[in-house]
C-alpha cells in the first residue's frame, strides 16, 4: 500500500582540484545521508505493514521503497527500479520514483483500475465452478485464505495501522538516540528585542531566559520551539495575547503580549525577541571583510573568546554572560574598546577595537513620526504619542534618522524635545523634557527586520525614511549645472541599483560570500518593496568606498523624476556595528541515561505531533496558505541542511518527518492508510463490505486529490527556487 503520496507534504534559510574533489565528496556524502534517512523512514513504515501482514498469513508479493512505475518519454524508456531481487514469495526493490513506498499484498491494490482484476485473482476457482454447476448464485464467495480481503476486519485494521505505529515508535527512538548523542541548540534566552516590536513596547529586557510561552513550558526550552509556539499561537489567535514567563537572575517576570505581523511576511507572527550572540569568535570568519574588526583581528584569533573588555571580566555566572559586554559595546559607539581574548591554545591576547566609521551616499535621511513607545517608558510618561513628529532636540532643528541615536543612546542628561502633533490647521507644537533612564542596549538601535530605530533610554522608536533631509554636495554626482542630476532636500528615493560592472567591482564584492548582496543590489531596492530603507543603509556599510549606485527619486510638488549617480563614501560619523565575527549562543542537551533519553524522545515526538495537528486545524480554518506547504524538494532541502549540521539534527529531522508521515498518512482520504481504515470501520459496522464500485470511485477521487496536491506543492517548491 502507498506510504501515501500525501505524506510528502509537510507543514512548514575551493578553487583548486583537491578542494573541488573534497567538496564533491562532502556533498555526495551529505546527499547520501539524506537519501538514507528519508528512505529509512519510508522503509520502517512499510516494514510495519509487511510484518503485520506476514503475521496473519497474508501473501506479500512486493516490498518496495519508491514506486516502480513505467516511465517513457518519447522513444526513451526508463528503468522501473534502481534494483530488485526475489526472496521467497516476495519481490524486494527500490522504485525509480522516490515519493514513498508500498507493500503489495495478494488481493489488495491501491490502483482503482486494477481493483476488479485483483478481486477475480483471489476467488477460489474450484468453489466457484461448483457453484456454477449447481446453479447456486447465492453461495457465499470464498476467497484465497492468504489474500488480504480474506482476513477478519480486526486483522486488516492491524495491518493497515501497523505502518503508522512503526513511524510513531521509530520517531521516538530517533529523538532518543539524538539526545543520547547530545543535541546542540540555541537556548530561548533573550539577546535583544526588535526595536518597536511587541517585546520592546512591553519593556522586556535582554538577559533573561524564556521558560514558558503559551502552553509550552520547559526549563531548557529551545529558541526554535519558542519561536514555533509564538508563530502558531499568533496564527491561531492573532488577537489573543500570548503568555510569556522569563527567568532573570533575580527571578521570574511574566508578560502577556499580542503578536505582530512580520514586516516582510504578514502571515508570520512575531513578538520581536532576538536570540543572543556568544562571546566566541567563529572558527572560519573572525570579522566581516572591510570592517574595523578585520584590521585588528587575525586568523590566530579564530575560535577565541572574549574574557574581558576595558578591564571588566566576563561574568559567566549570569544567565546570559554576553549581555553586559554588548550593552557596553553599543552604548559607546565612539569609544575605542580594549578586548582581552583567550585563544584556543589557552593564551590571552589583547586588541584595541576602534569605532567603525560609517559610510553614506552623500545625504542625510528624514525620520518618520513616532512609531512606538515603551509601556511606562520615559517618552510615554512625558505624554508623547505615536504619530508625533520630532522637529527639534534641544533647539536643534537639523534632525536626521541616524544622528538621533548617536546623540541620545548614551546620554545621561535630560533633553528638551519639540514635537508637532496633528496635521494642517489642527497641528500644534508641544515641548517636553525627557530624563533618560537606565536601559540595556544589547543590539544596534536600528532593526533590519522592522526597519525601525529605537532609543531605549528614552523609550521611543521611529523609522528612517527614503526622503532626503539634507545633502552634502561634495559627495553627490553632478557639477551643480543641472539640478536634475543632484539630490535635493525633500526628494523621495524610489529605487537604488548597483551599476558598477562586475569586472570593476572592488575586490571584497568579488568574494563568493558577497554574491547574494551583489545580486540583490543588481535587482535594485524599490521604495514599495518588502525591504525597509534601514536595511539598504545597513547594506551600504558593507560596500567598499567608490562603489557606484544609480538613484531614482521623485521631487515635489509635481513628482518630477530625478536620476543621478552616487558614490559610497566614508562618513564623518560612526556606525554601531564593528564587524565582530561572533557565533550564536549555543547549549547542548544530553540525556543522562537510557530512561532520560526515552523520556526526551517521547517529549520531542509529542511536540512534533502537536505541531502537525495544529497545522491541520489551522489549514482547515484557512489560517495557513497553500504556498506555505512544502513538497518533496523542500523536504530534501531541509533534510540536507540538517545533515550538514550533524547526526543529532538529522535524527530530530527524521523524528519530525516520522510524525508527519504518521498523521498525514492516517487522514481519512481514500488511497491512504486512513482511507482504508475508514472502509474497514464501515465494514465492521455494517457487517459486510462496502459496494466495490463505490469503494473504487472513492479511491479514484482520493488519488485525484493527492495528485492535485502534488502539483501544488511541486509548484511551490519550484517557485521557491526561482
Structural write-up:
It is a single chain. The chain has 722 residues and is α+β, with helices and mostly antiparallel strands. It is built from 17 helices and 36 strands. Helix 1 runs parallel beside helix 15 and helix 4 (153-181) packs antiparallel against helix 15 (647-665). The two termini are 35 Å apart. Residues 171-250, 350-423 form the PDZ domain. It is found in: Membrane.
Concise synopsis of the structure shown:
The chain is α+β, with helices and mostly antiparallel strands and 722 residues long. The protein has 17 helices and 36 strands. Among the domains are: 366-469, Pdz3 Domain, CATH 2.30.42.10; 474-571, no CATH class.
Rg calc: 32 Å
The CATH superfamily title of one domain: PDZ domain
CATH architecture of one domain: Roll
Helix content: 25-40%
Which whole number gives the mean pLDDT? 84
Which word captures the global form? elongated
Count of DSSP H/I helices:
17
The major sheet is characterized as: 4 strands, mixed
Strand runs, count: 36
CA-to-CA gap between the ends? 35 Å
Query: Regarding CATH, which class of one domain?
Result: Mainly Beta
Strand order of the largest sheet: 4-5-1-6
Question: Structural class given helices, strands, pairing?
Answer: alpha+beta
Low-pLDDT regions:
1-18, 477-481
Report the sheet-strand fraction: 15-25%
CATH topology of one domain: Pdz3 Domain
Amino acid at each position: 500500500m502507498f506510504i501515501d503520496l500525501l505524506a510528502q507534504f509537510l507543514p512548514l534559510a575551493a578553487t583548486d582540484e583537491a578542494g573541488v574533489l573534497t567538496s564533491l565528496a562532502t556533498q555526495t556524502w551529505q546527499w547520501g545521508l539524506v537519501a538514507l534517512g528519508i528512505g529509512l523512514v519510508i522503509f520502517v513504515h512499510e516494514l510495519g505493514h509487511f510484518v503485520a501482514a506476514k503475521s496473519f498469513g497474508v501473501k506479500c508479493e512486493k516490498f518496495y521503497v519508491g514506486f516502480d512505475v513505467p516511465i517513457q518519454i518519447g522513444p526513451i524508456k526508463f528503468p522501473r527500479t534502481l534494483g530488485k531481487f526475489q526472496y521467497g514469495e516476495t519481490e524486494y526493490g527500490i522504485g525509480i520514483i522516490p515519493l514513498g513506498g508500498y507493500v503489495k499484498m495478494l488481493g489488495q491494490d491501491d490502483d482503482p483500475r486494477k481493483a476488479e482484476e485483483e478481486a477475480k485473482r483471489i476467488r477460489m476457482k474450484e468453489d466457484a465452478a461448483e457453484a456454477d454447476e449447481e446453479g447456486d448464485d447465492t453461495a457465499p464467495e470464498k476467497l484465497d485464505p492468504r489474500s488480504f480481503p480474506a482476513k477478519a476486519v480486526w486483522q486488516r485494521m492491524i495491518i493497515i495501522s501497523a505502518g503508522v505505529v512503526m513511524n510513531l515508535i521509530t520517531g521516538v527512538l530517533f529523538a532518543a538516540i539524538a539526545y543520547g548523542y547530545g543535541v546542540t541548540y540555541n537556548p530561548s534566552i533573550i539577546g535583544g528585542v526588535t526595536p518597536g516590536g511587541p517585546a520592546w513596547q512591553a519593556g522586556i529586557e535582554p538577559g533573561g531566559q524564556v521558560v514558558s510561552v503559551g502552553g509550552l513550558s520547559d526549563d531548557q526550552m529551545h529558541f526554535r520551539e519558542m519561536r514555533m509556539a509564538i508563530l502558531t499561537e499568533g496564527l491561531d489567535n492573532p488577537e489573543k495575547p500570548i503568555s510569556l514567563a522569563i527567568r532573570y537572575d533575580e527571578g521570574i517576570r511574566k508578560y502577556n503580549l499580542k503578536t505582530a505581523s512580520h514586516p516582510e511576511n504578514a502571515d508570520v507572527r512575531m513578538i520581536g525577541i532576538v536570540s543572543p550572540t556568544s562571546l566566541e569568535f567563529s572558527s572560519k570568519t573572525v570579522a566581516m571583510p572591510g570592517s574595523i574588526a578585520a584590521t585588528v583581528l587575525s586568523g590566530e584569533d579564530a575560535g577565541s573568546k572574549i574574557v574581558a573588555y576595558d578591564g571588566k571580566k566576563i561574568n559567566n555566572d549570569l544567565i546570559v554572560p554576553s549581555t553586559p559586554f554588548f550593552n557596553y559595546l553599543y552604548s559607546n559607539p565612539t569609544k575605542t574598546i580594549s578586548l582581552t581574548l583567550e585563544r584556543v591554545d589557552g593564551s590571552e591576547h589583547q586588541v584595541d577595537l576602534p569605532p567603525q566609521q560609517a559610510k553614506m551616499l552623500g545625504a542625510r535621511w528624514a525620520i518618520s513620526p513616532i512609531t512606538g513607545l515603551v509601556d511606562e517608558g520615559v517618552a510615554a510618561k512625558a505624554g508623547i504619542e505615536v504619530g508625533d513628529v520630532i522637529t527639534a532636540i534641544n533647539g536643534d532643528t537639523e534632525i536626521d534618522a541616524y544622528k538621533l541615536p548617536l546623540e541620545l543612546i548614551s546620554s545621561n542628561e535630560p533633553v528638551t524635545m519639540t514635537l508637532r502633533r496633528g496635521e494642517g490647521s489642527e497641528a500644534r507644537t508641544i515641548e517636553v523634557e525627557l530624563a533618560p533612564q537606565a536601559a540595556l542596549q544589547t543590539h544596534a538601535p536600528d532593526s533590519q527586520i522592522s526597519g525601525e530605530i529605537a532609543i531605549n533610554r528614552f523609550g521611543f522608536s521611529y523609522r528612517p525614511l527614503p526622503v532626503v533631509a539634507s545633502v552634502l554636495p561634495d559627495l553627490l554626482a553632478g557639477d551643480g549645472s543641472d539640478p536634475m542630476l543632484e539630490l535635493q532636500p525633500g526628494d523621495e528615493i524610489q529605487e537604488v541599483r548597483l551599476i558598477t560592472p562586475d569586472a570593476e567591482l572592488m575586490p571584497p564584492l568579488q568574494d563568493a560570500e558577497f554574491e547574494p548582496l551583489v545580486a540583490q543590489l543588481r535587482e535594485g531596492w524599490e521604495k514599495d518593496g518588502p525591504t525597509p530603507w534601514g536595511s539598504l543603509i545597513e547594506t551600504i556599510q558593507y560596500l567598499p568606498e567608490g562603489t557606484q549606485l544609480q538613484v531614482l527619486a521623485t521631487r515635489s510638488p509635481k513628482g518630477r523624476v530625478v536620476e543621478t549617480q552616487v558614490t559610497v563614501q566614508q562618513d564623518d560619523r560612526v556606525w554601531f556595528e564593528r564587524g565582530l565575527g561572533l557565533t550564536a549562543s549555543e547549549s547542548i542537551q544530553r540525556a543522562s541515561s537510557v530512561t532520560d533519553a526515552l523520556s526526551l524522545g517521547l517529549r520531542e515526538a509529542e511536540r512534533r505531533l502537536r505541531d502537525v495537528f495544529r497545522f491541520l486545524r489551522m489549514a482547515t480554518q484557512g489560517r495557513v496558505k497553500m504556498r506555505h506547504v512544502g513538497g518533496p524538494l523542500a523536504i530534501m532541502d531541509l533534510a540536507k541542511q540538517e545533515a550538514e549540521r550533524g547526526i543529532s539534527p538529522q535524527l530530530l529531522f527524521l523524528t519530525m518527518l516520522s510524525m508527519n508521515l504518521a498523521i498525514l498518512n492516517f487522514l481519512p482520504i481514500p488511497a491512504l492508510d486512513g482511507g482504508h481504515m475508514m472502509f474497514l470501520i464501515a465494514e465492521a459496522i455494517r457487517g459486510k463490505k462496502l459496494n466495490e464500485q463505490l469503494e473504487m470511485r472513492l479511491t479514484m477521487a482520493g488519488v485525484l486529490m493527492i495528485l492535485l496536491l502534488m502539483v501544488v506543492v511541486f509548484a511551490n517548491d519550484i517557485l521557491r527556487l526561482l
